[in-house]
Amino acid sequence: MSSKSAKAPENLLDELQATLAHGTVARRVEALRRVTDLFLNHAVDYSDEQIGLFDDVFQCLILHIETSAKALLANRLAPVDTAPPLTIRALAFDDVIEVAGPVLTQSNRLDDDTLVEAVRNKSQAHLMAISRRRSLSGAVTDALVLRGNDEVVHNTVNNPGAEFTERGFTRLVNRAEQDDDLATCVGLRPTLPRHLYLKLLAKASDTVRERLESADPKQAGYVSNAVKEATRRARSAKAAVTEQTEIAHALVKSLFDDGRLDEFQVASFAEAGKFDETNAAIAALANVPLTVAESMMVETRAEGIMILAKVAGLSWSTVRAIINLREDIASGGEPTDLQACKATYERLRPSTAQQVLRFHRMQQQNAPAA
Prior knowledge:
Layout: H1 9-22, H2 25-41, H3 48-62, H4 67-77, H5 85-92, H6 97-106, H7 112-121, H8 124-131, H9 138-147, H10 150-157, H11 166-175, H12 180-187, H13 194-203, H14 206-215, H15 220-229, H16 243-257, H17 263-271, H18 275-286, H19 290-297, H20 303-312, H21 316-331, H22 338-347, H23 350-366
């Protein structure tokens, strides 16, 4: 390396000042190239203070260079974990996607807050670049699913490094109703909560169901049985459940076996938004199989919940908490009329609820042979 190219960043300031004041565009681009070379040659060795100095230099230069030079800088800095942070941010928020794209897709200098800000304020091309990142947190995918167009959402769902919150999955399931390709991709996500898988399956087309069966033969019987039982209800047969669901079921079984499962516990599960625990608790207290309770929990109307609750001897306040829990899970239409439900629940006799529940159990037992 020549003494000129090895010049310390501090010694470049005077030269840069002269270049910016009197130099041509070509001289500015050449200065940018030299500073970039200097930084990349020793990027792992620089202290935070030295990186801060480079940050100042780069920001001065990118204000006075053409787009093609900024795009080249973005491509060179994007893969570098120690890249000057303010420069990376400036490049990421550039309106020109050729400049912003490489940084949005590759740079580890961009934290979740910055990425979410970009999703909320930049173009769909910027969102597409973010959706291609090696990993995406639930906070970022929430923002992408909320604001992204179809192409962005598809790309996000197909990203194996993407994580999704339950809120994000709920939006995806609702969005997938008219999009078979999206429904298939969402249905194949291994972390899709069980109740949302049921809702997706209940509204899926035959094409989607066939794709899910083909993609996972172990689920074929589950898909087939669930579809047979009702058009808008997906009831589980011997479905494979997620590890999270198994843990929830084991917890509730332990509480029940120890005599510690009561109405207060059910209300606590429901108010905390814990579907699997709530479902398992109601099933235990009503003395019905988990699959029967689950099928009634995801029905569009709330009658099934009230039948189970009446058999389990739950008060209206707990029933209301359960209805609120499943409101975002299965309704998909008008909000439940709680006053009407309360009146119905108070009129409902335990003996009538038991008869209806026996019918549900018989219907499910006979469904696979239908």
